[in-house]
Amino acid sequence: MERECKKMEKAIVCPGRNSKVKVFPVNIGDVKLKGLLGSRIETNRRTSIPSLYKSFLEYGTVDNFRIASGEKKGSITRRLATDSDLYKWMEAVSCDLQNEYDRERARLLDKLISLISKTQEKSGYIDTFYAESFRKERFKNLYHGHELYCGGHLIQSAIAHHRATGKDSFLDVAVKWADFICRKFGKGRIEENDGHPEVEMALVELYRTTGREKYLELAGFFMSKPYKILDGHAFLEFPGVTGHAVRMIYLCSGATDYCIETGDRKYLGKLLSLWEDMAGRKTYITGGIGSRYSGETFGMPYELPNLRAYAESCAAIASMMWNYRMFLITGEGRFMDLFENTLYNGFLSGVSLDGREYFYVNPLASRGEHRRKKWYDCTCCPPNIQRMLASLPGYFYGVSKEGLWVNLYGESESVARLFSGNKVRMIQKTGYPYDGKVSLEISPERSEEFSIFLRIPRWADNCIVKINGRKFTAEPGQYFVGRHLWESSKENVEIDFGLKPVLYSTHPEIESTKGCAAIKRGPVLYCLESVDNPGVNLFNCRLEKTKLKERFEPDLLGGTHTVSGEILSGQDEHLPLYEKADRYPDPKFSKRRFKAIPYHLWANRGTSRMAVWLGKHI
Amino acid sequence: MERECKKMEKAIVCPGRNSKVKVFPVNIGDVKLKGLLGSRIETNRRTSIPSLYKSFLEYGTVDNFRIASGEKKGSITRRLATDSDLYKWMEAVSCDLQNEYDRERARLLDKLISLISKTQEKSGYIDTFYAESFRKERFKNLYHGHELYCGGHLIQSAIAHHRATGKDSFLDVAVKWADFICRKFGKGRIEENDGHPEVEMALVELYRTTGREKYLELAGFFMSKPYKILDGHAFLEFPGVTGHAVRMIYLCSGATDYCIETGDRKYLGKLLSLWEDMAGRKTYITGGIGSRYSGETFGMPYELPNLRAYAESCAAIASMMWNYRMFLITGEGRFMDLFENTLYNGFLSGVSLDGREYFYVNPLASRGEHRRKKWYDCTCCPPNIQRMLASLPGYFYGVSKEGLWVNLYGESESVARLFSGNKVRMIQKTGYPYDGKVSLEISPERSEEFSIFLRIPRWADNCIVKINGRKFTAEPGQYFVGRHLWESSKENVEIDFGLKPVLYSTHPEIESTKGCAAIKRGPVLYCLESVDNPGVNLFNCRLEKTKLKERFEPDLLGGTHTVSGEILSGQDEHLPLYEKADRYPDPKFSKRRFKAIPYHLWANRGTSRMAVWLGKHI
């Protein structure tokens, strides 16, 4: 197959050098993570990836392709969009291969690709749901059918495979499918978009990979049409983020990719205002989005219930994908701040510590009934969590013509290639996010003057940066810029974020958090679980204005920092639902010590109540 | 048709004299209401009833019967359970005929009954949804199909018609249907119940009306089977109220009727514990129930959001029906207290002041987007509201062997027949619920010693009762019992409930009302609408500990009492969604006067924000 792709890049997204991007990602495989994220990636590799594949075998996800290709007899298991689950899982495996090459896995991918390619029809069509008697339903119900959604995941997965292995086998399938879609959709052909946006992002990435403009154009065409399921708006008409959260934010991610490549100012303006609506009025302190069970949608502004938070794991991932793209086009710290906050809280809560079970829904309080599961009939979240974890290294650094961007912190060894071609080796020594001190060794292959951009999170309002011993104060919520002639010998950057546990307050219009406070320590949100707090009534308590103490507990939940303090706990007396204020019994409180753990670690020790937001002492 | 029914009673429900009932209802037509409820009943009669019938003609509700009976050509409009809408409306008309006989309306009922009877098949089956090609679906999908639900409404409507007019024409249709169901369902036949409980209540009432035990037995049979849609419990197995609120509480109502007739103690115990779960943990201060949009279900204990309250009008009605039945079997004031609270708040809010528009969902706060509508595709609520309004007079009084029960208060002239056969005339002079003083004239036809039972609401903690000038203090939340030789001349009972506006507090586990207060004045809940409160930020305000003032405003919303006071209103500044507590800007407040109106009158003056729960001054 003829391919116009010039460069072999291995990043999560690969904007063209002529695009309107401010920062370019580095290769996933060039960042080796240890520490908290490294261990999660390791669990993902060793446990989550193989165990989900077993579930796929058990629940017919792979067999669907065998049956649709004629390789096996039987009947298709008709769960909508189930092909995309396998594609996402293959994307996770491909990304992970960049960091740890495993011949067995690469071979398994080859086998699956060969199977998928046998399933693909001559036209390019592929979707096992619409095989057999369902053939006649193809493209009849775009609102509900998820055909382009599955195809989008096919493209993304194929690109990830191509980037990881250099092979074209899977990419050929994706290109054939995309060419088919280009013939089917567009002006004068089917003039509609998919009920579940996803293909927009994928088409832009395929344009980046192949250089063929028709994919970019088709993405633009889709976005110019009304998204019926998202209140009927075409992209530029959205008054705010609305409807199904994953769909809305996948669309925003695709629109950002489109904007990066086209430089369309109208898109950028719309994206910024949508982001402000999401981040300023419709996001949980966990980073979770999409508060409503009903339709998995965004709520009204400030509609953020705790016990009934929906906050789908996939929606947190969508937000991370969008925030990253917004960062690429603007270079602004606020986007990576929200990325990081979502990463350590609403995203990481989605998978159990042992890597075997997943949350679909991530509430901010629970009476104990909410537990992770191995499998969901609509199992979109588990493979999505896996591909995000496997690609996480790729989010750490960026390069621009000015120099090197440090977006995330964590124990790691990495390389990045500057625009000059100069290769820079970076070693982060840190216990971040539990430790607030980062020591960063920068070693360019050869001396060069360039800027280093260090993200100073908004919470780090007491941050000190030292470059080779020279002290700077750094503005929180911004990238600190240090321009310098970097010698090829090791040069040292020290950052002290001034990490300590603090209480957070909330907007008064959020009805579920009135008069409440939450505990954060740096980017990590804390919660109380009843297993650590016997005798504390999590749903009727008041935080004392006492000192919050922190402690590293090596044997707790794989080793974590806990926060403790004093709390007034309501006694479990029988109180009336409503009563005249002057007759309502004064709730009886007793003073207790409490212990909080990181929110992302909750629900790993059997049934337990949990609360993030706690009453404040008043 | 042979009928074993001995007595001609005209009450809402007519328990047999041998049943385990403590209090017997009086005839609907024997209570003539004026005042607030009288005017709402009048609007129901003059505006709501005729305008809804017009909608039925417009949307095919009546035509469905014409088409199914072969009277007209065309195709059935397939809205699930739409037959029940017409039945409920006919029940409203029948009840209303007891209080104002209208020959035209009686004739329209006759015409409709004749049409319905033509639609009924020889077997007894009737349901226009399952005509034509849908015949083969009959009883195939009880979980979803609403066939027994529609039949239940057919029975209730036919009984109301029989009681109002003495005619058997409609009752014959209902009996024929019920006999068919008795042949189809039961041990060894179809051993399932309906996805939407309703027929249980209806079957017990048909037993009461005809004396045929098979209907009572079938109700018991249904309740012994698992209700799949309500978490799969048979009635006696429910651990609490759960699932779809209307279904659950219709079932509880039917179970109470069954318990009344059978005296089954297991049922009574279960009913009391379910009621405590509902009233003590899952009911809004409006009386509304069923907090979740998703599935129209009850939430977890204390899950009672304000902006996203579902609180369907039909669920408020279900609660009133159940509470009334619980009162009949126990004689306890707490049930009529909750009935009254629901009546004046969560129920009456369901219909506009002009009687033309209806709420399906009754939130406790609104940003203005929530408005009543004339018609819903699932239009269960409008005719349900109409039948409750038309039958309201029947809830006012009761009789027992001890004497006369006064359950509700309001300007009215009524009669009741004691067990002795002695007829008692009662005149209530009062502006209740806006006025807290009630003067009650009791005039028996002949002198007799009996007790008068006066419901003293729980909120009336300073209540004085005078009988012929003699003063008693009365315990709130109980029926005050005054035994006395009542002369045939007018005797006078004066009650002063000590009405004044007060603040209410809530259970600390309700996350949406933490640190909030609501205003009530007697049974009437108040709210703030932005139209009365320019410059007050309803979602960020604090009630001052200031005197609440009350005022009657004759020109406002048909004449109503308002409550005013001082409030600190947050300025509409841009506040962060989350921020460290010590950096979160102190919200700026300015002192304002506020004016509150009864909650049931909200949304009658164009778009307006609304809030029931307000922040407290702390």
Architecture overview:
- The structure is a homodimer of 618-residue chains.
- With 618 residues, chain A is of the alpha+beta class.
- The first copy, chain A, folds into three domains: 24-395, Alpha/alpha barrel (Glycosyltransferase); 400-496, Sandwich (Immunoglobulin-like), CATH 2.60.40; 501-616, no CATH class.
- Helices cover 34% and strands 20% of the residues of chain A.
- Chain A has 14 helices and 23 strands.
- Chain A has helices at 35-59, 61-68, 82-99, 103-119, 142-145, 147-165, 169-184, 199-210, 213-224, 245-262, 265-281, 313-330, 333-347, 381-391; strands spanning 24-25, 31-33, 365-366, 397-400, 403-406, 412-417, 423-430, 437-444, 448-456, 464-467, 470-473, 478-486, 491-496, 501-506, 516-521, 524-529, 541-543, 549-553, 560-570, 578-580, 589-598, 610-611, 614-616.
- The first copy, chain A, has a seven-stranded antiparallel beta sheet.
- In chain A, strand 18 (549-553) and strand 19 form a beta hairpin.
- In chain A, helix 2 packs across helix 4 and helix 8 (199-210) runs antiparallel to helix 9 (213-224).
- The radius of gyration of chain A is 24 Å and the shape is globular.
- Chain A starts with 23 loop residues before the first strand and ends with a strand.
Structural class of chain A: alpha+beta
CATH topology of the largest domain in chain A: Glycosyltransferase
Stretches with pLDDT under 50, minimum 5 residues of chain A: 1-7
**Domain count of chain A:** 3
The second-level CATH architecture of the largest domain in chain A is Alpha/alpha barrel
What oligomeric assembly is this protein in?
homodimer
